[in-house]
Amino acid sequence: MMKNKYYVNLGSQEISQIKYDNNDALIIFATDDEIRTLRGKLDGMHDSDMRSFFRSHVPIMPYHNDKPNDDYDVGVTEAFQMIYELGDKETKKHIDDIGILTDSRM
Fold first, then answer.
1. pLDDT above 60: residue 99
2. pLDDT for res 60
3. 21: phi > 0 → left, psi -120 to 50 → alpha, else beta; which?
4. Total count of domains within the chain
5. Is 80 within the bounds of a domain?
6. Between the chain's N and C termini, which has fewer beta carbons within 10 Å?
7. CA trace torsion 31, 32, 34, 39 (10° rounding)
8. Predicted model pTM
9. Is residue 79 in a domain?
10. Which GO terms describe its molecular function (predicted)?
């Protein structure tokens, strides 16, 4: 399958084939199936984030027992791992520089 160039912004959870504003921090080359998988990971992060938001309004539930927060952290790591695997040289260097995958590679 043919791989296309995509711009990824994890902050806004955007995946785009069009460079716009500042969405070019992470550049990947992916097939349609790979993009669907990455989109699923980002959607899972959003869902976990929303569940964590609602949990934060329950004062008797301690933060360290927050499964949605743990799920979000796993989602971020999985998304960065996939972006690293699909990324161009600059994307891989950026991810290496921020060190988010260091613990998961050891």
1. yes
2. 65
3. left
4. 1
5. yes
6. C
7. 140
8. 0.78
9. yes
10. hydrolase activity
